[in-house]
Amino acid sequence: MTRLAMLALGYGFLVLGFIGLFLPILQGVLFIVVGLLILSRHAAWAERLLARLKARYPAVAKTIVAAEDLAARWTDWLARKLRRVSGR
Question: What is the domain extent for residue 79?
Answer without folding.
Answer: 2-86
